[in-house]
Amino acid sequence: MRALRILLIVVVILGGLFVLADRLAVGFAEDEAAGKLQASENLAAAPDVSIKGFPFLTQVVSGSLDDVEVGIKDYEAATGADGRTIRIDDLTANMKGVEFSGDYSSATAATATGTASVTYAELLKTAKSEPTQVAPGVTANVVGLSDGGNGKIKVAVEATVLGTRMPNPVYVLSTVTAQGDSVRVQADTLPSFGGVDIAESRVRAITDFEQKIDGLPGGIQLDKVQAAKDGVEITVKGSNVRLAG
């Protein structure tokens, strides 16, 4: 019995040492991966990298990680227009089947899914904020975006008719969709400006707009978008997503 107790104690100690070594190793790997991703994506701050699954060391031996979560607080995505960017908030991506090199200089995920958001203030930069003529004597421009409820965006349009600014903005509910690499906002119904008859195409040139979001980390792409309380919620996905290298 004494020998069995000693054996059990040894097993417990070795098991504890293995768990400690495993957690130290995963912490080092997360820091290395975060540094590589920060450098490759030119991020202002290191992202949060969390390697899931236990034990980590057996995954290292196989050269593949089952599940890696990456979180980027603020990401400046390209818009494809004059070098301008749009800020993506709270980008979180879950990477599956991550193959990596021994020094973590390169890593590629078989698949990735994730979420992010764009504030209404950020998306408003895309709309025509300067007064634009939509008919003789009538100018209009978008002055605000907000949650319209039921997955809609409420678009506030300000108009000036024959030199007189309308006392209150005109509000329209709009549908937001993902079209390729762009977020598209399209009015469900068209506003009326002082009873003036205006061609639909001229009005939609003001109310409808789209924002291209290009160059997301690792080559992930837009999948779905939906209006929410504080902005547009985005779903992203990708395959053969490059984390580093």
Structure description:
The chain is an alpha+beta fold and 245 residues long. Among the domains are: 1-62; 129-212, no CATH class. It contains four helices and 13 strands. The strands form two sheets. Strands 5, 6, 7, 8, 9, 10 and 11 form a seven-stranded antiparallel β-sheet that branches. Strand 5 (132-135) and strand 6 (138-149) form a beta hairpin. It is elongated, with a radius of gyration of 26 Å.
Short description:
By secondary structure, the protein is an alpha+beta fold. It is built from 4 helices and 13 strands.
Furnish the topology, listing elements before pairings.
Elements: H1 2-41, E1 48-51, H2 56-62, E2 64-78, E3 85-100, E4 107-119, H3 120-124, E5 132-135, E6 138-149, E7 152-161, E8 164-165, E9 170-179, E10 182-187, H4 200-207, E11 209-212, E12 221-227, E13 231-244
InterPro entries: DUF2993
Organism: Streptomyces cyaneochromogenes
Pfam families: LmeA
What gap, in angstroms, lies between the N and C termini? Answer: 55 Å
Give the strand tally: 13
Averaged pLDDT, please?
82
Assign the structural class, choosing from mainly alpha, mainly beta, alpha/beta, alpha+beta, or little secondary structure. Answer: alpha+beta
Q: What is the string of SSEs from the N terminus onward? A: HEHEEEHEEEEEEHEEE
Q: What share of residues are in beta strands?
A: over 45%
Summed up, the helix count is: 4
Largest sheet: 7 strands, antiparallel
Rg, Å, rounded: 26 Å
Q: Which percent bin holds the helix content?
A: 10-25%
Low-confidence runs (pLDDT<50, min 5 residues)? 6-12
Shape: elongated
InterPro entries: DUF2993
Protein name: DUF2993 domain-containing protein
Pfam family, one: LmeA
